[in-house]
Amino acid sequence: MSAPLLPLSALCRAFERREAKPSEALEASLRRIARIDGKVHAFLRLTEEEARSAARESDERRARNAPLSALDGVPIAIKDLFCQRGVETTAGSRILAGYVPPYDATVVRKLREGGAVLVGKLNMDEFAMGSSTENSAFGPTRNPWDLSRTPGGSSGGSAAAVAAKMVPGTLGTDTGGSIRQPAALVGCVGLKPTYGRVSRYGVVAFASSLDQVGPFAEDVRGAALLLQAIAGRDENDQTSSSRPVPDYATALEGGARGLRIGIPAEYFGEGLDPEVEASVRSAMDALGREGATLVPISLPNSPHAIATYYIVATAEASSNLARYDGIRYGHRAQGPRSLIELYERTRAEGFGAEVKRRILLGTYALSAGYYDAYYLRSQKIRTLIRRDFEQVFAAGIDAVASPTSPTPAFKLGEKIDDPLAMYLNDIYTVPANLAGLPGISIPCGFSRAGLPIGLQLIGRPFEEAALLRIARAAERAVGVPARELPL
Amino acid sequence: MPPADWEPVIGLEVHAQLLTRSKIFCGCSTAFGAPANTQVCPVCLGLPGALPALNRGAVTMAIRAGKAFGCKIAERSIFARKNYFYPDLPKGYQISQFELPICDGGAIPVPQADGSIRKVGLTRIHLEEDAGKNVHAQNGSHVDLNRSGVPLIEIVGNPELRSAEDASEYLKALRLALIYLGVNDGNMEEGSFRCDANVSVRKRGATSLGTRVELKNINSFRFVRQAIEFEIERQVALLESGGKVSQETRLFDHEKGETRPMRSKEEANDYRYFPEPDLPPLVVSREWLDSVQTPKLPHQQMAELSAAGVSTADARTITADPRLVDLHGRIAAAAGKEGARRAAHVVVGEIARAVNEGALDLGAPKFRPEQIAEVFRLQDEGTLSSTAAREVISEVIQTGRAPAQVVAEKGLSQVSDEGALESVVLAVLEKNPAEVERYKGGKKNLLGFFVGQAMKELKGKGNPGVLNALFKKRLE
After folding, report:
1. Tell me, what's the pLDDT at B253?
2. Which domains does chain B possess?
3. Chain A interface residues (partner B, CB cutoff 8 A)
């Protein structure tokens, strides 16, 4: 038996009505993983024992009708970027192979406290740098809709695991689109919350001012339930916000009537696949039929986002990745003759090509004599990009709609030797990171080749509740018909 | 000393560990001397995913120093990353402050030999975290990260100092001021107070600065003087012989008494400073700023003691340690009239001696200031001679026992009762008729002889004043 799992929100309801038990759900999940993950390679490792004992405890609580949260008993898997006490955490890198953290990331602790059952760690681009999961040191993840194609990245494992119904919900991180783009490419919902909405403590850092944790689920309601479990102020992350966390599920069915949706001209330009454009435009029209007003807008600085991003993100990364020096943990080169050689060889052996490229870019951008021209300048453009959004929201726009990714899933190997082509995958997602805004990708159709297409919605800061409501309205309006996975 | 036509220009950078119980970005203990790597956590170990959380206590101490030195306290300051690789630096960067430090400007008051106060300007004071320590042993090199994340302030002085002696005086004044403020323990041996010196020389009268050399490893007042003197002479000799000073960092070798190059500018690190994205800007509110109390600095205490009648020499001894200032103040307050002067004698005398002999721990004195005042009172009313009073005070400060009890046990109280002394006076006069005659014949200084004889009879416990009066009465 390897029946697909119920979607997250449906599973929660089934637990409540005693129509399903957490340990049964876990076994179903493990059976499905065992059957299909050999093809997809979403998981880097499973934590079956720990999961089984957590599920048994959850069974008990559910039987006593005393669940810890709505998620109590739900099998959840997490990107291998989250520190989990006692469980190897690699960030997809050889340099951290075998590294076992002594502490839980805050989101991992919160999931545990809510009774979620942690099933395993998911594949990713090394240190979350990439858009195809091909930069994983442990082999690529494949798109469940076409195994010759990428699931996107960097949270490719998190997206593929949900799309292939191996687990009903996963966590990923999004620095420039790493949740939304893979969600679009595999046809699930992926939400990047506002910067500061979810704690980054215990999340292996890529670019600290951009990284944000978020959920994947099959539908908007599932994403809302997962966000509920992880959002909120954390004293261990001083960039986390102390704004109160509202109940995301209650406002979900508010509909689209009266909402103003901005359509930015800059997000429908050169490089956009015509099938993607048609699908996204038809989704927006569907929202319009539900009562939303579609408003043409301009975000004139967004075209500079990719260039800006590759300064800011690489500068921060060059510093964040300095700690991987072979001194205290992780890979260490054998037999160095000097300290400098220990550093050089450890890092040369431990990091992959894309990570090295970004460390070099970032180091260069911060170097004496170049700082003003690159880092400082990019911070200024970042401010302009944020202001564009502020103006649009101030003018009464509730959300900005666009394609999530310019193309459907591409072939494995297709862009791996062309970094610029790869970087352009994030052209529509990066602005929300630079502006710190919440963004969500929801499925809005399929290409003729049977590949999923995603619609991106970007909302006001800390108004995830409103964004989820709009996404839910779009999800209902579009009504993507269910399809069998060709697995 | 350099030939008179060269002028040295010196500026000091001091790193002072703040006396917080926990580290600047995590809750680990800052206690010195624990076994290696036992006061560590994911944050100060720089483990993947760990993030800094600012200890506001450290900020308060930086504000206290800044307020005391007249710095402008920034309403909004920024933490920055200083990037470099070293095994004792677990994150590969040090969290420090760069463009917007917490304190700007200000000055250190440095007491001069003539009693005046010289103000040496500060460039800035900023907050940062300490690194760990590399430990080199026979079986290889090790890293101890107990010190990683201990809070520091770096106090950057202007290049206003003109001699090694100047520098040493500045450093002493700064160290003492920080101890007064309760933000640093001034311990140079354990490295909680560390100094680097920037030294250059220029032709006297020149307005532009010469090329500067940074001196490191000068962790005692003596080494500071030696290193700077050596460096001034080296630079002058170099320039006089037509050479050029190169901008570099030099280490002081205290065994050889010389400085030698550590790294040259060519190899110098580019620290690639940029704002720390894991910490929001540090905002110091008006309320926070106002709530930070600044105790009086040494030169202020010195002025107050002088005004209260304490001699300059005594005041210097007392102000060398804020605990002595505190004790002095409390004894003086309990003693009332003339209290400041008398308390000063006790502090400089019996208390300083007891501290030197290890008989008194200033951190936990056993006596109460009121007990010293009680001894003063016994002396004033004639129960104790001044010698006996000093003996009682010595005993009281070491044991904390009640003065009356000490007086009784040691039999120190003197006889002042005229009735009791009368018979002794008469007996002395009777035994010494010749002297009585000579006194009456005009040898008035024989009064001392009679008092001395009476004291002998009384085993030193007679009140000399009363005896004097009684003899005079009988003889005239």
Report:
1. 92
2. 6-291 (no CATH), 298-410 (no CATH), 418-475 (1.10.10.410)
3. 82-83, 89, 91, 96, 99, 101-103, 105, 200-205, 207-209, 235-239, 315-316, 318-319, 321-323, 325, 327-329, 339, 343, 363, 366-368, 371, 375
